[in-house]
Design goal:
The chain is mostly beta strands and 153 residues long.
Length: 153
């Protein structure tokens, strides 16, 4: 995307997949704006939403009438995602009322179903083994669902 900030300096590399359970492979690359390097360890759901429509528009997946399902293999995590893309008249539609927090404007919805994302980086849904951990007197949940996160109320 570009722009010189971590939120917008991102790359999505998409290609036809040779895996029998996927139509396309997706590799997310975070461009480090303050360093001369890139990082392929994280994942990005907002960029993932664009993979299905891109694959259809580029002819990597044949559009179906109504909704087209694109099977995606995320190379960052080794997981699989099904993207449901709006394709009335066998073409991707981009106009719609769906909004994503932090992303300007609205667009057609892209439904994502993560098929095997639990423990994708650590091997366990709850990496610490507990559903609630404590940092001092603050309860937190450490969870690995497509990427490790710490949830705090």
């Amino acid at each position: 995307i570009g722009g010189g900030s971590p939120q917008t300096s991102k790359v999505a590399i998409v290609s036809r997949s040779d895996h029998p359970d996927a139509d396309v492979d997706y590799l997310f690359v975070q461009v480090m704006v303050s360093q001369r390097r890139v990082d392929t360890a994280p994942n990005c759901g907002n960029m993932l939403c664009a993979v299905g429509p891109f694959a259809i528009d580029q002819g990597l997946v044949q559009a179906q009438s109504g909704v087209t399902q694109v099977r995606i293999r995320n190379l960052n995590t080794g997981t699989f995602i099904c993207a449901d893309v709006c394709t009335p008249d066998d073409m991707v539609t981009y106009e719609g009322d769906t909004a994503i927090d932090g992303v300007p404007g609205t667009a057609a919805p892209v439904g994502l179903t993560f098929l095997d994302a639990a423990g994708s980086k650590t091997g366990k849904l709850f990496p610490t083994g507990a559903t609630v951990d404590w940092l001092g007197d603050v309860p937190v949940t450490c969870i690995d669902m497509a990427m490790p996160m710490m949830l705090v109320e």
